[in-house]
C-alpha cells in the first residue's frame, strides 16, 4: 500500500495531485461484486486514525499503524456488505424511525439537545445523512445478528442460579433510576471539584448548578430515566457498575472537545434506596449477562461462515 499522510484532521495522500486522484479511485476490495474504494475506506477509517494520533506516515512506525487501522476498517466494511446481503435474504430492514430513535438515544447519552447535537456535527464536518447511514448499518448488523446468532445461544437455569448466588449483592431493581450529567465548563478545575464531590464537601447537585455546561443544570443535570436496553456499550459499562447515589470518577466526554464529565445514578424522591432482586426477578438480567460472551463466540462462527461463502478480493 502506498504511503499516506494525515494533516489537520484530513486524510491526504503524500503523492502528486494526479497520483492522489488515482489512489483515491483505486479499488480497495470487492465483496460479492460490491466495490469498496480507497476513498470510502479512508473516510471510514478517519475517526480511528484521529484517535491513534497519526499525523505522518513517513515514519515507518506510523505507516504500520495506518495499515493496521485501514485493514481493520476494511474488514468491517466487508462484513457490513455481507450482512446487508444477508438482510435481503432474511427480509430484514431498518426503518427511518429506527434510526430516529437511535439518534435520540445518542443525544440523551451525550447530554445534548437536537440543536446542540447538530451544531457539534457541523463543527466536526459530519453530515447528518452520513451519521444516519452509519446508524442504519449498525442497526441492521444488530438485527441480523439477533436473528442468526442470538436465537442459537442457550443459557441454562443452572448457570443463572450459580451467577445469582455469586453476584446477588450487585443485583438490584434499576427501574425508575435517573442519570444526572455534570459536564464541567472548560475554565474550571474539574479534578479539584471532583475531589470535593468525592469527600462530600460539595454535592453533585451544587456542582452541576455552578459549573456544568450540560442541559438541566438547575435540576442536578437530570437526563431522565435510564433506558437500560438502549445504552451503547460505553454508557452501559459505566452505569451498570453503579448503585443509586454513586457518582463516577472523571471521564472524557465523547465528542466534547476535551471536556471532563461525571455522572450520578439516582432514584428521585426515595433517598436512593436499593431494592435487591430475587432470583426470579434477576433471571432476565442474568440471562443477558451470560448470553453476551456466548453470543460473541457464535458471532465469530457466523461471520466466518459468511466470509467462507463469499467471493472477496482484497487489493490493499
TrEMBL record:
PANTHER family in the cross-refs: CHAPERONE SURA
Domain PpiC as annotated: residue spans: 155-256
Source organism superkingdom: Bacteria
UniProt KW keywords: Isomerase, Rotamase, Signal
GO molecular function: peptidyl-prolyl cis-trans isomerase activity
Name of this protein: Peptidyl-prolyl cis-trans isomerase
Phylogenetic classification of the source organism: Bacteria, Pseudomonadati, Thermodesulfobacteriota, Desulfovibrionia, Desulfovibrionales
Secretion signal span: 1-19
